[in-house]
Amino acid sequence: MLPDVRLFPASWALVNASARAGLLVLGRGPRGLGPVAHAVAEFAECPVALVAQ
Length: 53
Fold this sequence. Notes:
Blueprint (H helix, E strand, L loop, with lengths): L9 H9 L5 E5 L6 H9 L4 E5 L1
Parallel strand pairs: 1-2
Helix pairs in contact: 1-2
């Protein structure tokens, strides 16, 4: 059973999911990395692709 990710911050949910993923793809805003993308890029356990919007 997977935890209900709505109960956790987005960065925690994505980093946790990265343990079972082959690649995480995140959108990057016009002003650079936000706090969620920054945390995921630093702590993810799989490769992360940051895509400019």
